[in-house]
Amino acid sequence: MLAEAVLAGAEKLRRPGDQSGRLYPSNVSLCPRRTYLTWIGDREPPSQEALLRMNDGHYQEEEMIDDLERAGFEIVDQQRRVTIGPSVEHPEVPLSRQQMTGRIDGKILVNEEWCILDCKAMSSRRISEFREQGFQSEPSIKVQMQLYLHSAEIRKEGITKAIVYAKNKDNCRPFDRTIIYSEVFASALVKSFVDIIEGWKPPAERTSLCLTCPYTLKCWGAHSIDFSGVKVISLPEVVAKWKRAKFHQVLSKELMDEVRPLLVAELGDRKAITVDDLKILRVSSHRGEMDKILFVKKYGAAALTSIWTEKDVEQIRITEV
Ligand code: SF4
């Protein structure tokens, strides 16, 4: 009863021209055809659920800004409007036709450098893909950030980085990634949307972007799944060995979890004991580590970024399908 009323009430959130027939940094795509279809407004209007989701996103983003400020970061220019397009470089081109505007979430000072800040609340699945694949799993955020960084106003301020600060909606666990401005990438995007505005109708091209695109039915006549990046082969003996190894791995962990507490209890305060033909030794090693809580108390949370280094680590994950 309440749910139905709330869904109906979401209509009040609908703005004229919502996401259709207009281009913003957030709806320009790496696929020029998708940008074109958005430009001509050839898309179903957002559902009531989607309207609620978008509204919820605004609240979550405000909270994320609060979290960052509580940690000691300086954030300015919240919701500042920036202009993107070739007209800034070529003043003779009419502004209204070839420019788009967008609003940045703000600018944040990190290690004495101002960066564009973008806050995104994400589902668990989405944030874990973002952790593992970086901007490969979030091409539209990459496009949006590159367009903001390409804005002449932003470039004039010498800003070359955007930080995407993400939060897991289920458990509030935060995560962030930095993206560096690429003039080549951003100029190509601007050229493609200007060509579209000037009448280019890009053809459909099957890429991995089609997998999550709302226009698959329009372009391909069906919801398509692109398996071009997946190699399918058969190695039954190898697979059987892997499954055996996995079984023993699980079994050995269960057995260890069962017997270890019993042996540790027998050891008590002693340095060593023998149990039949097993030897149980207390081994202590000396390690140093930084106490993050103490550091933050002494220097503030924002100072953590000045000593924090990150690197991408590639892992191979094997799972049963
Ligand atoms: S379905 Fe594929 S080709 Fe068509 S607009 Fe979407 S991403 Fe582009």
Report on the architecture of this protein:
The protein is an alpha+beta fold. It has 11 helices and 9 strands. Helix 2 crosses helix 8 and helix 6 (139-150) crosses helix 8 (183-197). The strands form 3 sheets. A 5-stranded mixed beta sheet has the order 1-4-5-6-7. It has a two-stranded antiparallel sheet with strand order 2-3. A two-stranded antiparallel sheet has the order 8-9. It folds into 2 domains: 2-220, Lambda Exonuclease, Chain A (Alpha-Beta Complex); 243-306, no CATH class. It binds iron/sulfur cluster (SF4).
Provide the fold topology.
Elements: H1 2-9, H2 32-39, H3 48-70, E1 75-76, E2 81-84, H4 95-98, E3 100-103, E4 106-110, E5 113-122, H5 124-133, H6 139-150, H7 152-156, E6 161-168, E7 174-180, H8 183-197, H9 216-220, H10 236-267, E8 272-275, E9 278-281, H11 292-299
Parallel strand pairs: 5-6
Antiparallel strand pairs: 1-4, 2-3, 4-5, 6-7, 8-9
Helix pairs in contact: 2-8, 6-8
The protein binds iron/sulfur cluster.
